[in-house]
C-alpha cells in the first residue's frame, strides 16, 4: 500500500525537435486509490506509467512511491507490478511458473509460492490451467494470467496499460467489472491507462486526462463530466461528444441562429474583462431538447435544426442536424426520446434544457469561463 | 480413329482441369505430385550419394577402393576402421581429442560472445551500432585465406602461435560475426515487453538476458552452436598453419592428410577415417536439432 506522487515529472525523447512525451506532470495518487489515465493516442499515457515503473527515464522532476523518492531506483526496487497491453507472459514457463516467478526470484520457499499461486488462481478462475503454457490459452485466459502474475506479488502499486484492449467487447465489460472489484478487495493503489473513456468513467475513483503530455484535469468522473476544466476535456469525455461551437457574443448571451442563449452574470463579466467577441459554447446532447410546436413560450429561446441523421439506440435516439451559427452551418447532436424521433430532413426546434448545463470556454485558450 | 483418341484425351484433360478446380485445400494434382516428388528424390540423391559412396568405400581394402568397375561390396570388411582406431596409421584418437577440445571451446566461446553481442545490438541503441552491424556483414565477404598471414603475426605477438587456444580464438574471429548476426535476428523476435515484465518481476538486466531471452532464443542458439562447431571441426587451412607441426597437436582434419601421400592414397582408410570424423558432427546436429523448431515464443502476446 502506498501513495504515488509525480512532481513536475517530464520525459523528453531526444529527437529533432525533442518530444516532450510527458510534460511537467504534477499528480498525486492516494493510498488505495484507483486512478485512470486517459487521453487520445500519443498523449503520453504509457510513457507516464512507464516512468513510474522505472522502464523510462525521468528527465526532469521526481517521482515518489510511499513517500520514498524512486526517481533513480531501478524497477526491481520499486515494488510495483505491471500488467502489459500485450500481457508479456513468459512463453517458456507454465501459468503457475509465470505467476510465481517474481516470488521465486525473491527466494520465497516453494510451498509458500504454491500456496499463493493457488490462491490467486482461485480468485481468477485459473486453477484448471496452472500447468499449461501461455500459448495454449485463450486471450481472456492470458489476460487473467497477467493479472494473476501481478496479484501474487502483493505489490504496493499496480500499473495496468490498456489491459483490456485485446479482448472482445463482451469480455471487456465483464473483465472491467472484475478488475474494479478486485482492486476494491485488495485495496492496492492502482494506476490504469486506457484510451476508452467508458472504462475511465466506470472504473476510476479519479480520472486524469492527458493531451500531448500535459495533464488537462484530474478529478472524479462526475466532476470531469459536469465541470470540464477546458474545451478539450469537455469534448473528450462523454459519448457522443459535447456540442462545442465558437459563437458570437451579444450583450447578454451567446448568439445562435437568431436566438440568444442567456449566460450567467459571472461568465459575462469574465468575457467583458477579456474583451472577447466570441466564446466557445458547449452543451451536451442530453442538455438539449426538442421543442414542441405547442410550446409558445419557447419562441426566442429555441433554434432551428435540419435533421441529417438519426441514430436510434432503443431507449434514446441521437439526432444529428445542422443549424446556422453566425453565417455558417454547424452540426449539433441532440438526445431525444427513442420512441418519437424526428425524420430525416425535418426541421425541428431545439432549446437548452437548463441554463446551468451550458459550458463556456475561452475561444483561444480553451479555459473554462463558466463557474 | 487417331483423331477420336486425341479428342478423348483432350476431353479427359478437360475433365482433369475441372477436377483440379474442385481440388480441396492442401491437395495436389497428380502432375504436381509427380513433379514435386521427382525433384525431391533427385535432390536427396545428389546430396546423399557421395556420402553413401564414402561409406561403401570405407569398408573396402585400399587396393579395391578405386576400381574401373566399382562394386557395392568388394572384399569389404572393417579392417580399415580397426587400423585407424588402433593408431596404426597415426595418432587418430589423439587428433580426435584435439578436435573435440578445439571445436568445443570454439562453440562455447563463440556462442557466448555472439549471444551477448547480439543481445546488445538487438536491445540497446548506442553510438556505432550501425557501423558494427555493417562491419559484421562486411567481414563475411572476406576470403578467410587472406587472413592467415596477419593472424599468424597476431598470434606470434600474443605468444599463442602453435597453441590450441590460439586456434580457438582464430575460429571465433571468423564465426562470431555470423553468429552475432544470426542471434540478433532471433533476439529481435522476442518482444521487448518480455524483458520489461522480467525487470518488473525483479530480474537484473543480466538476469533478463540469462533467464528469459536466452531460453526463448534456443533455436537460434542451436543453429549458431552447430555452425560454430562444424566450422571448427572440419577446418584445415588455419589448423595446419596455426598448430605446431608435431603429430600430437594436430586436429583430425589435418591428421587425415597422412592417408594422402605423394605417390599413393589410401582411399579405404581415408574413407573410414572420414566417416569417423563425420560422426561427432552428426551427433552434435542430433543434439541440437530438437531445438530447431520455431514458435518457441508463441503465446507471449495476445496471439
Ligand atoms: N522511444 C521513443 N522515442 C521517441 N518518441 C517516443 C518514444 N516513445 C514514445 N514516444 C512519443 O511519445 C509520445 C507519447 O507516447 P505514449 O506511448 O506514451 O502514448 P500513449 O498515450 O500511450 O498512446 P496510445 O494510446 O497510442 O498507447 C508519442 O508522441 C510518441 O510518439
Ligand atoms: Mg500506450
TrEMBL record, chain B:
InterPro entries: BP-dep_ABC_trans_perm, MetI-like, MetI-like_sf. Residues 96-288 form the ABC transmembrane type-1 domain. GO terms for molecular function: ABC-type maltose transporter activity. The keyword Isomerase does not apply. It is found in: Cell membrane. The chain crosses the membrane at residues 30-55, 100-121, 133-152, 164-187, 208-230, 267-288. It is a multi-pass membrane protein. It comes from the Bacteria. GO terms for cellular component: plasma membrane. Belongs to the binding-protein-dependent transport system permease family. MalFG subfamily. This is ABC transporter permease.
Amino acid at each position: 500500500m502506498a501513495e504515488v506522487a509525480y512532481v513536475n515529472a517530464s520525459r523528453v525523447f531526444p529527437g529533432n525537435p525533442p518530444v516532450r512525451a510527458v510534460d511537467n506532470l504534477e499528480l498525486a495518487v492516494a493510498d488505495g486509490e484507483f486512478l485512470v489515465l486517459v487521453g487520445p493516442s500519443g498523449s503520453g499515457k504509457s510513457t507516464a506509467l512507464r516512468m513510474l515503473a522505472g522502464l523510462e527515464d525521468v528527465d526532469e522532476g521526481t517521482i515518489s512511491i510511499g513517500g520514498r523518492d524512486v526517481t533513480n531506483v531501478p524497477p526491481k526496487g520499486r515494488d510495483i507490478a505491471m500488467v502489459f497491453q500485450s500481457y508479456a507472459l513468459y512463453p517458456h514457463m507454465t501459468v503457475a511458473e509465470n505467476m510465481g516467478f517474481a516470488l521465486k526470484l525473491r527466494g520465497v520457499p516453494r510451498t509458500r509460492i504454491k500456496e499463493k499461486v493457488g490462491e490467486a488462481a482461485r480468485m481468477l478462475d485459473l486453477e484448471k490451467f496452472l500447468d499449461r503454457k501461455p500459448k495454449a490459452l485463450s486471450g481472456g485466459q492470458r489476460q487473467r494470467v497477467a493479472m494473476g502474475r501481478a496479484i501474487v506479488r502483493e505489490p504496493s502499486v499496480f500499473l495496468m496499460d490498456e489491459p483490456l484492449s485485446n479482448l472482445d467487447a463482451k469480455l471487456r465489460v465483464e473483465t472491467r467489472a472484475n478488475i474494479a472489484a478486485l482492486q476494491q478487495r485488495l485495496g492496492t493503489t492502482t494506476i490504469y491507462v486506457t484510451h476508452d473513456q467508458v472504462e475511465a468513467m466506470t472504473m476510476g475513483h479519479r480520472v486524469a486526462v492527458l493531451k500531448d503530455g500535459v495533464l488537462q484535469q484530474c478529478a472524479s468522473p462526475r466532476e470531469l463530466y459536469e465541470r470540464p476544466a477546458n474545451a478539450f476535456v469537455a469534448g473528450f469525455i462523454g459519448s457522443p461528444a459535447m456540442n462545442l461551437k465558437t459563437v458570437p457574443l451579444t450583450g447578454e448571451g451567446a448568439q445562435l441562429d437568431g436566438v440568444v442563449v442567456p449566460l450567467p452574470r459571472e461568465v459575462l463579466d469574465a468575457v467583458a474583462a477579456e474583451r472577447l467577441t466570441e466564446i466557445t459554447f458547449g452543451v451536451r446532447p442530453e442538455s438539449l431538447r426538442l421543442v414542441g410546436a405547442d410550446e409558445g413560450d419557447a419562441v426566442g429561446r429555441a433554434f432551428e435544426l435540419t435533421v441529417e441523421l438519426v441514430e436510434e439506440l432503443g431507449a434514446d435516439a441521437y439526432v444529428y442536424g445542422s443549424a446556422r451559427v453566425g453565417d455558417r452551418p454547424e452540426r449539433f447532436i441532440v438526445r431525444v426520446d427513442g420512441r418519437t424521433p424526428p425524420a430525416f430532413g425535418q426541421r425541428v426546434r431545439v432549446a437548452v434544457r437548463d441554463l446551468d448545463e451550458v459550458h463556456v470556454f475561452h475561444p483561444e485558450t480553451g479555459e473554462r469561463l463558466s463557474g | 480413329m487417331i483423331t477420336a483418341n486425341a479428342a478423348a484425351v483432350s476431353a479427359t484433360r478437360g475433365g482433369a482441369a475441372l477436377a483440379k478446380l474442385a481440388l480441396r485445400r492442401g491437395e495436389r494434382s497428380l502432375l504436381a505430385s509427380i513433379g514435386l516428388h521427382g525433384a525431391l528424390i533427385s535432390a536427396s540423391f545428389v546430396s546423399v550419394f557421395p556420402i553413401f559412396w564414402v561409406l561403401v568405400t570405407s569398408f573396402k581394402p585400399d587396393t579395391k577402393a578405386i576400381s574401373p568397375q566399382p562394386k557395392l561390396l568388394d572384399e569389404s570388411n572393417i579392417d580399415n576402421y580397426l587400423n585407424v582406431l588402433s593408431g596404426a596409421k597415426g595418432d587418430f584418437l589423439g587428433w580426435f581429442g584435439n578436435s573435440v577440445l578445439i571445436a568445443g571451446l570454439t562453440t562455447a566461446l563463440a556462442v557466448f560472445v555472439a549471444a551477448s553481442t547480439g543481445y546488445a545490438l538487438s536491445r540497446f541503441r548506442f553510438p556505432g551500432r550501425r557501423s558494427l552491424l555493417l562491419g559484421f556483414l562486411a567481414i563475411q565477404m572476406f576470403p578467410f585465406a587472406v587472413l592467415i598471414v596477419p593472424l599468424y603475426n597476431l598470434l606470434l605477438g600474443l605468444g599463442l602461435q602453435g597453441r590450441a587456444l590460439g586456434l580457438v580464438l582464430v575460429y571465433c574471429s571468423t564465426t562470431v560475426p555470423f553468429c552475432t548476426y544470426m542471434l540478433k535476428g532471433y533476439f529481435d523476435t522476442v518482444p521487448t515487453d518480455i524483458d520489461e515484465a522480467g525487470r518488473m518481476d525483479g530480474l537484473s538486466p543480466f538476469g533478463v538476458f540469462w533467464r528469459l531471452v536466452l531460453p526463448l532464443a534456443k533455436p537460434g542458439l542451436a543453429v549458431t552452436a552447430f555452425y560454430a562447431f562444424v566450422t571448427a571441426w572440419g577446418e584445415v587451412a588455419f589448423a595446419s598453419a596455426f598448430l605446431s607441426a608435431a603429430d600430437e597437436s594436430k586436429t583430425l582434419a589435418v591428421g587425415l592428410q597422412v592417408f594422402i601421400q605423394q605417390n599413393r592414397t589410401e582411399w579405404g582408410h581415408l574413407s573410414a577415417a572420414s566417416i569417423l570424423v563425420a560422426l561427432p558432427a552428426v551427433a552434435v546436429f542430433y543434439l541440437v536439432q530438437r531445438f530447431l523448431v520455431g514458435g518457441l515464443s508463441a503465446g507471449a502476446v495476445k496471439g
